[in-house]
User: Fold these one by one.
Assistant:
Number 1:
Amino acid sequence: MDSDERIIGIKDVAKAANVALATVDRVIHNRAGVSKKTKDKVLKVIEKMGYQPNIMASNLSKSKKIVLGVLLPNISEGSGYWEFPMKGIVKAQKELSQYRIKIKTFTFKQDNNKEIRKKVLELINSDIQGLVLTSKFADEIEILLEDCKEKKRPYVFIDSNVRKIDSLCSIQQPLFESGELAAQLFNYCFNKGEILILHLKDTMDTEGIIGLKEKGMNAYLKEKNNSIVTKSLVITDFNENAINRMLTQTLEENPMIKGVFIPNSKVAYIAKYFEKRAGEKIYLIGYDFFNEDIEYLEKEIIDFLICQRPEEQGYQAVYKLFEHVVLKKEVEKEIIMPLDIITKKNYKYY
Amino acid sequence: MDSDERIIGIKDVAKAANVALATVDRVIHNRAGVSKKTKDKVLKVIEKMGYQPNIMASNLSKSKKIVLGVLLPNISEGSGYWEFPMKGIVKAQKELSQYRIKIKTFTFKQDNNKEIRKKVLELINSDIQGLVLTSKFADEIEILLEDCKEKKRPYVFIDSNVRKIDSLCSIQQPLFESGELAAQLFNYCFNKGEILILHLKDTMDTEGIIGLKEKGMNAYLKEKNNSIVTKSLVITDFNENAINRMLTQTLEENPMIKGVFIPNSKVAYIAKYFEKRAGEKIYLIGYDFFNEDIEYLEKEIIDFLICQRPEEQGYQAVYKLFEHVVLKKEVEKEIIMPLDIITKKNYKYY
DNA sequence: CTGAAAGCGCTTACAG
DNA sequence: CTGAAAGCGCTTACAG
């Protein structure tokens, strides 16, 4: 049962090809300074013997560290979301520290363009060999991406890639489909009435994202061809009183509203309003799971949250860079995250 | 910004403690043959210098392979589920192959006690240093677990640990809570009526599992104090005609049934019946996601599936054994999987 | 273009 | 109980 095949190493290849260790190494890493003839000979032997490099040995003998960069918003009010990808990044870092991988983090305040540009400049002048970032702030990072392309520095997007910018890999949730999913869930709760889609504008370029979710929602409703329609409301003023006023007015004017869809991570703001509101149950569906949502999930004021495993996105982003830079593996261009559904009864295990 | 702290190794410790490399090695691995005095001295230096072992180097110089065993049902009709943990196990194996980890798989037909016992015997007489298995088949594996305890072989349970058997780690979904979740979902679909709980008996000891799910469901309904009640139906004959007959009769006699809860992975069997059935919509909630469910999800005959990331369970099981055996890390006694909700609109990304 | 040799940080016989 | 030395499978100057 024990097939104790001897592991064949660079030494075996060298002997079989009748060359020195260093030559085999050069061929394996495609380094210059090997004649075509020798290279072919070695390649053939590698192929025939089924040589597999030993990463542990390789890393052990390597001297230089590999540094990866991370450019993300810092964790502050209004951008608490970024805590989760960061956790995943830190986890990956710990796991990979044995491989002499280091991570340099560059954070900035979301609406501070000057700070973003400063960090971009720091990154351009740094010695990183790979980069994790989000495709939001597209204008500010454009120059950084150009620089990366020139220097052949790989970069990975997390959280979104709405403008379809080229990258080593982009990791995101399917947006359109998440809108469909939300519609399906609403449809389980009621099959006649209106869904109010709230556009909570903040400074980020998220209209593209919200737009896709909205399209998905309408697509599902159309497909089911039933009596649910959507209605949009744009909120620009985040002041609590302003929100209350707008919602009260809208709900009074539209008594058929049975559900509210908040296509970003600001559900708790809105749930607060519904907690105090009397009248018939209105179903709430939002995105992403925060501590402040728990209270409203427990009271079933927030009914469903659609989540995208942000921690895993951060982890995967670093891991894919590692695979590319260290292991020289092929990396898939796109990783699509599952659409997780969170309710009162399963958030504890998420 | 670059804190280029020199990594301190066994050599540095040896020099600082004024002993030989081998002695430091002995202390690190708690091997015999070191005087208390020397040991304390070395330990103190390790502590002070903050020495961290380099696993890559450690593994490279180790000669012997580590073999882990896996004892699970084979993949056949009626037990297709085990394909998923197996996938995770294979994934972990690939990732860990660099660490000289080998996995020996022992599979058996679920209802073949003789075969289980045979595999158990093989395992007892094997040279494995860790074991992945499920706590189902508790009677058959009892002797194996005793043997493991005696030999101090660690073992990890996946999929369930209803009888609360001791192990290095057990990985499972929260059963009671999954019943609550199912009840919550039904409650979104209707708020008056009956839920039929189907007990599809097969040869495995799964009554404990089903019982817990049922209790969770009733707990939620009671908590909500509304007008949904449950009703159980036991099916022992899996013949299609028999199922049809029993269901038709039950539904006729109980016109208030609005939902059917199938607390195991056999939903597709039941969905087949509902596909052909005329009459008012009856909601279906089941467990685990298989290819044969897709058709019924698409038609929204199956409404929700509650899933437990079986692939990740297999992966984690192997990984935890690896952490324990190779890295000598502390491993958590229990890993609770999230309760994933799958519908027509998100199964593609699961 | 090619090779011999030292070294990465550990483990493992072997000698004392 | 303790230590000196070889070796794990690679990479990296250095010499030719």
Number 2:
Amino acid sequence: MTTSTREQFLAAAEQLFADKGFYGASIATIARKLGLTKQALLHHFGNKEKLYGEVLRALSERLAANNAAIRQRYPDPAEQLEEMLLAQFRGQMKNQDSARLIMRELLDNEQRADRAGNWYLKDYLEELVSTVQSVNSSYSRARALAVVYQLLGAAHYFAVSQPTLDNIFGKRQMAITRGCFEEQLRRLIRAALA
Amino acid sequence: MTTSTREQFLAAAEQLFADKGFYGASIATIARKLGLTKQALLHHFGNKEKLYGEVLRALSERLAANNAAIRQRYPDPAEQLEEMLLAQFRGQMKNQDSARLIMRELLDNEQRADRAGNWYLKDYLEELVSTVQSVNSSYSRARALAVVYQLLGAAHYFAVSQPTLDNIFGKRQMAITRGCFEEQLRRLIRAALA
DNA sequence: TTGACAGCTTACCATGCGGTAAGTACATTG
DNA sequence: CAATGTACTTACCGCATGGTAAGCTGTCAA
């Protein structure tokens, strides 16, 4: 299993952007992780903004692929939605870099000239919204979006806060909380759709 | 109503930290907003990290004061919790700088040497957790934290995403969604405690 | 064998960063 | 009137940043 230099750059960049944000991460530091110079990075990606865009694109493709798989496996829309949200939660708990990266993009994309990630997020959200609507057809699009966002927020916020929460409440306490979080989240999802 | 230079610095800093994050915001830019030089700022706050800490402290004091007022006004814990969460949501929708600032702190505080904001957030969270426990005494501390965090996340995530959502779905659609968000949130809060 | 290209390197540059040092202008106080 | 302190300024520093330019090396096709 050989990973191309390009892919290694993308992986290293994802981690550093997640840790420090777009401004805080430097391309020289990313390159140093592979033992290369920043000019090697620039050779592959042109500039920092484009690198960031590619990282985001790769991430959103992974998200979309997951949802597509779930949509295939489960016929019932209510199950689909529940599984999509829970899968996304589990994924973000496992790969917290991706969770933090999306959160940062939510915060930053207005600031940066090129709004690289907007449109990928859009597709992802639209899919969830329309799934909610097919579960509960009395919900307007606007209300379905509110529901989706609350559930997404409940999960994403927690995933992103893990290091801070470990700091505040201690690892032991948080291990227990993590243990019951998913069950509680499932409850919340069902309540929101009832 | 004269605001001291110091207070003006804090206000300007809050805004810029919220916009660009700790790394992205420069003290020179903050000072320029008041027509002063960065050395004036350094005169008042010593260094960037301390300025950031003071901004966070001021913010957390506002949060604590709001909660204290609610705790006084409402005798019933269930009402207290609902009002605290909704008040926090409304506050964050009105002052989105503060919402983004807290979110950024959640993401960044592990990275920065001095973890300025940890302990303020701690008090705030503990208060909510213990309120949940007095509403539903069958919840363990760990489970109460899970519940609190889900509800907090549902609200905070939405507040923080406003500019991005406006971009994706358009201002009209989002105005409608904002209109039904709070009612939906209230439903979610009650469901989580039942 | 030559030419082109991919994948790097070193060298360099202007800009902006946080921070120090030293000084100025002005008000308050002994 | 002198001393002290506050609220600023200009001047400067060393360093890291994103990006450009030019060149080196190996591969591969004509």
